Amino acid sequence: MKISIAIADDQELIIQGLAMMLEKRPDMEIVFKSQGGANLIKGLAEYTPDILLLDIQMPDANGIDLCKEVTKTVPHIKVIALTNFEEMHYVKQMLRNGAKGYLLKNTDQETLVKAIIEVNQGKLFLDAHIHETMIGELAYGRNRPGVPVHLTKREKEILKLIAEENSNQQIADKLFLSLRTVETHRLNLMQKLSVKNSIGLVKEAIKRGLL
Question: Top-level CATH class of 3-135?
Answer without folding.
Answer: alpha beta
